[in-house]
Amino acid sequence: MKKTLIAAAFTAIYACGAHAQNSVTLYGVIDAGLSYNSNAGGHSLWAAGSGNVTGSHWGVTGSEDLGGGTHAVFRLESGFSVTNGSMRQGGRLFGYQAYAGLDNARYGALTLGRQYDSVVDYLAPLSFTGRHPGGNNLAAHPYDNDNLNNSFRVNNAVKYASANYGGVKFGALYGFSNEAGGFDDNRLYSFGASYDFGSLLFGAGYLQANNGGSANTNGALTLTDRTFVASQQRTYGAGVNYLMRHARVGFVWTRTQLGGLDTINGANSLGLTQNGQGASFSNYEVNASYDFTPQFTVTGEYTFTQGALSTEGGEHHPRWHEVSVQADYFLSKRTDVYAQASYQHIGADGSGLGADISGQSPSSTDQQTVVAIGMRHRF
C-alpha cells in the first residue's frame, strides 16, 4: 500500500513538472464598432464594422521544453468578422498564421508554415499602422502598398528569427512556389533587422515576390491575399522611433516597385500596359503618440506617398496625402474604447485613381474621410 502511494506521489510530481515545462495559450483581439465614410462609391456610408482599427482575430500558441534551451513551438491564428462571424483571409481557418518549429534561447527560431514576412516583423512596428498586433487598418499607406498593415501573409514559408543579441535582432524568410519545374513561379523571400538602443529603435526590411499573379495558386501568395497582381514586387524601407517618458515619435520610409502590374486593390483594374515599368510607391511617414495618463493615449501620423505608374493612357505621377488621429482610453488592461479619424487626398494626375482609405470602399473623388468609434477586447 505504501509503495502504491509513493508511486502515485512521484507520478503526480512528474506530471506537474511536465505541465510546468509545457504550455498552450489561447489569445485574441475583438474589435467591434461603427464607422462613417464620407464617400463610398459616391455616397456617404454609416456602417457597423469589425476590425475598423485592429483586425479581429484569435489564436492558439504552444511550447514544449525539449531541454538545453530548446523548445518546440507552434502557432495557429485565425481572422474573423465580428459582425457576421465569417472567416477572413479568403475563408481560411487559420488565415493569419499557421506554423510549427524549434526555438532556442541562444540561436533563435526556425519555423515552417504560413507566416509574416521580414518587413512586417522588423519595420512595421515603427509605423502607426503596424505598431500593434493585427495592424491599424485606417492608418495604412495607400493600398497598403508596403504591407506594413499585414495585408498578405506568406504560404509555404521557412523562417529564421534570431535571438536578441544586445538589442540586435535579425531574420529571413523564404516562401516556396511548390511548383514542379517552376521554382521561381510565385515565390517570395525577405530579410530584415532591428536594433533597440534604449530610447532609440531602428528597423529595416526587404521583400521580393516573383510572378505573384501567375496561375500557380499553391505558391507563396494567393490572389485573395494580394493587394497587387503583378509579375514582380520589391518592397524595402527603414525607420526609427525615439521613446520619451510619455511620448513616442517616429519616421518611416518605404518604397515598393512593381513590374507587369495588372490590378491594384483587387477589383480596381487599371488595364496597365506590360511595358516593364509597372508602378512604384514611395511612402514618407511621421508619427507620434502621447500618454496623457496611463489610461489615455493619443496617436497620430501623416504620410506623403509619391507614385508613378504606366497605363494605356501614358505615364502618371499620383500623390497621396494622408492624416490619421486616434484617441484611445483603456477601461482595463484588456479592454479599451477608441475614436479614430483618417483623411486622404490624392492628386491623381490623370491616372483615374480616387481616394481609397485602407479597408474602406473607395471614393469616387479625390478625397475621403473615415471616422470610426469602437471597443477592443483582448483575451
UniProtKB/TrEMBL annotation:
Against InterPro entries, the record matches this protein to: Gram-neg_bact_OMP, Gram_neg_porin_domain, Porin_dom_sf
Source domain of life is Bacteria
Is Membrane one of the keywords? yes
**Keyword set, alphabetical order:** Cell outer membrane, Ion transport, Membrane, Porin, Signal, Transmembrane, Transmembrane beta strand, Transport
- Residue ranges of the Porin domain? 7-344
According to its UniProt record, where is this protein mainly located?
A: membrane
User: How does the UniProt record describe the way this protein sits in the membrane?
Assistant: Multi-pass membrane protein
The signal sequence is 1-20
What PROSITE patterns would the database entry show?
PROKAR_LIPOPROTEIN
* SUPFAM superfamilies assigned to the protein according to its UniProt record, in alphabetical order: Porins (SSF56935)
- What CDD domains has UniProt attached to this entry? gram_neg_porins (cd00342)
Where in the cell does this protein reside?
Cell outer membrane
Q: How does it associate, per the subunit comment?
A: Homotrimer.
Q: What is this protein called?
A: Porin
Give the species this sequence originates from. Paraburkholderia unamae
